[in-house]
Amino acid sequence: MGLVVVCGPRLIEHDDGEVPRLSRTNQSLQPKPAESSALPGGVQPVMAEKPPMALYRLIAEGLILKLKPGSLLLTFTEYETLANRTTDALYKKMGLVLPKPYLIPPALPLAWVNSPELASMEDFEKIRLLNAANNDYIKRIIERLVDEYSVATVSLLSEQFAAIRGVRKTGDASVAQFLKRLYGPDYLQAYILAHDASEIQKSSITGKREPIVVPPRLVADGEAEICGLWRTEFSDEELGAVHRFIVQHEIGEKLRNDLSRSTMPEAEKSLIESTVLGYRISSMHALTTTTAAVYYKRAKVGAN
To answer: For the chain, what is the radius of gyration of the CA atoms?
Structure first.
């Protein structure tokens, strides 16, 4: 079976059919009703009653990837919140209307495409299929938004990036205890010292140096930031589910070793990420490693 062609409305147009370029005084994209037209071969487009919000979601993700500051590290939940808010803002605030035609794989229910939920691995497979069917189309839309509508696009994304920073929660004692049980009582300091020792050994050809001294305040700040990341991602009830997942799949030691030495094989990571909870755990582990690396760099700078 082939792909179902769904016809959507265009980006904004003048009466003469030209697509205007946004200026600083022209910041909104106003929808224009779609016009039905036959496709080559006599195929008639199928009109969707609702906008294909799953496609808006993919465009939002592409814009986030393109414009997100490198310093903005997001948990899985924060990213989902950012993607959903940006999707909504593209359609409702910016007034983006997708030009025709785009492609909907026949395996995807149109109701899901119009109102997507990403609550299971099956849902993520659906969005992957939609992306594969419209990869070039999505890239062209993103390029137009960044080029022809750059002021409005950058402004909208900047607002979303600023707003998502307010989602971050503060860590607490229960999360701190969980992380110390998972990674070890002094996991951040151990990470910093282990990586410093490795760097000293690798630089033996040019001469050894003394190990860095890790300030207690830096460790406290780093652990507080990591605790905040995990608290943002998981409630106390969810932390219980995380603990059970780790015990059931016997990955506690693997996560501890991977934090300090990055030893986990990709096949092992793929197994962990085969469920939504496992994917969230893997994402948080990767974010913990990234944050620890940031504080190692700060420790090195402070030692010089």
So the answer is: 24
The answer to whether residue 28 scores a pLDDT higher than 80 is no
pLDDT digits 0-9 by tens, 177-205: 999 999 999 999 999 999 988 888 777 65
Cβ-in-10-Å burial (0-12, 13-18, 19+) of 35 comes to exposed
3-state DSSP assignment of residue 103:
strand
**Sign of the dihedral defined by the CA atoms of residues 213, 217, 222, 224, in that order:** positive
CA proximity to 85, closest of 31, 20, 160? 160
Q: Give the orientation angle of helix 236-249 with respect to helix 173-183, to 10 degrees.
A: 10
> Concatenated DSSP letters for 168-233?
PPPP-HHHHHHHHHHH-TTHHHHHHHHHHHHHHHHTGGG---PPPPPPHHHHHHHHHHHHHHHHHH
Q: Where are the alpha helices (DSSP H) in 236-275?
A: 236-249, 252-261, 266-272
pLDDT of amino acid 274: 95
Write out pLDDT tens, residues 87-142: 999 999 999 999 888 999 999 999 999 999 999 999 999 999 999 999 999 999 99
Nearest to 299 by CA among 181, 164, 199: 199
Q: Residue for token digits 């229910």?
A: 109
CA distance 62 to 87: 11
Domain ranges of the chain: 4-167, 173-303
Smallest Cα–Cα separation from 175: which of 222, 219, 231?
231
